[in-house]
Fold Cytochrome P450.
Amino acid sequence: MIPSLSCYKVFLPSLHFHKFISSKMGLAEMNITNLSMGVTVVGVLVSWLYIYRWRQRNKIGPKTWPFVGAATEQLLNYDNMHDWLVSYLSKSKTVEVPMPLTHYTYTADPANVEHVLKTNFPNYPKGESYRNYMEVLLGDGIFNADGEMWRTQRKTASFEFASKNLRDFSTVVFRDDALKLALIISRTAQYEQSLDMQDVLMRMTLDSICKVGFGVEIGTLSLQMPDNPFASAFDTANIVVTLRFIDPLWRIKRFLRIGSEALLNQSIQTIDQFTYSMIHKRKTEIKQAKASGKQSQIKPDILSRFVELREDPESKLSDKNLRDIVLNFVIAGRDTTAATLSWFVYMMIIHPHVATKVYDELCKFEAERAREEGVALFHVGGLEDIHGFNKRVEQFSQLLNYDSLGRLPYLYATITETLRLYPAVPQDPKGILEDDVLPDGTIVKKGGMVTYVPYSMGRMEYIWGPDAQEFKPERWFKDGAFQHVSPFKFTAFQAGPRICLGKDSAYLQMKMTTAILCRFFNFHLVPGHPVKYRMMAILSMAHGLKVTISRRI
Ligand code: HEM
């Protein structure tokens, strides 16, 4: 306790001196009073904070601080966020993460996931927050749309995706691009060089989706590995919009056009330039084809189909709508597939016994298919016979088509197992329109967000059993046959009315590519290369996947 200074005044002899001293003493008294008040306030604050945190001692999920909620903990764990969530969700199937202006609920409970994605689907749209974060990139495209706008796009796109024309066209595109990739890899092996597999896979899927989506060959997958401004801008935009989810200052940065938001602005300009030029090119080609009566020359790509739809008087599609549609498909089809393929290759590297089983299945398949087609397989005169080797790769690729690829169950299971542990969309947030109670009793409030977490779900023992964290394609088989599981348990493609529209197309490309890669190559990680995910909407590798390669016959 601090004593009051006034008790010393009685000892002072002269009034003048007294006044002088007492004025000085008054100041000191004030300072000490202030100090004592300050100490009291700090004391109260510290006690309050202590009680605030103490009351959360039994809480499962991140502990919060007043005003900022769990934002600090989430920011501190940002680079590791998926595993940070695994640590909480393994203790509780649902965790609450209060944030400054909103409230996040993360769940790995299949019953909750079914409720959100299907049973009470209308209550869980993408939501305003998601829309605000992503609009700059996705616009009004299917990924970012809700309600009627989503329903219309979904209907049209589902119809297009079901078309045999598009499937046949995609098969050819995927085969050509996988073959191109194989020849680049073969050359890398020949010269004993290293290669960033994620980079080449991103190039391959970008080329493919641009061909399937816009009908245009952009040629980023080539031996010269050309820089592509669209691809770099696209990656940057993806990273920055993901950062918005946890950066409370993003709106200010956007307003001031500084930092990450300035970078985003620049990237969007590059993306738009590229996309609008594609749209104009395709429109001109279609106009010319129609004017010369050569409708059959109109390509079966997605953009052409939507440009044609635009001519329907009922359709109100503007250039901006077309831009949003195609960009959404690029986002949907490019990074997801390339990221999955990268994790697949990594799984083959660290699980060589699985790579051997995949290889054995492919060799058997090759022999069977060659017999069926009545073709003699090229004889390769040893690993030095580069020409013969490349010819054999090409010949093998011709044996692959939509139907024959369906006869590789172990390969299919290996891709699926990769997606279980490394889902391309690791967490998927939904808005909340009205207060609701999830099946496990968690109350969710209007305006917050509920996120199902495929990355965590794939690792939960309460879903997959004690070996949940192991990479084991065999888990997908029962009595020798592949067993599909509930999409509310294996959530890599989402589930319910908004289930991924490109699932079959993605599997087609992944099977085509991995069949060629695993049949003819072994991959080895460059020593010391770190493999770690990067925090963005898609689960890609932060440092790429540097490998050396050996050929196998
Ligand atoms: C391994 C590859 C893929 C994975 C793991 C995957 C996963 C997903 C997921 C999780 C969603 C829901 C996203 C959300 O709620 O925002 C989704 C939606 C979607 N995907 Fe895929 N996807 C893949 C490949 C593709 C491909 C190749 C295409 C088409 C070219 C595609 C087209 C779509 C579309 C159009 C939607 C939006 C559906 C809607 O909102 O109604 N996806 N995908």
Summary: The chain has 19 helices and eleven strands.
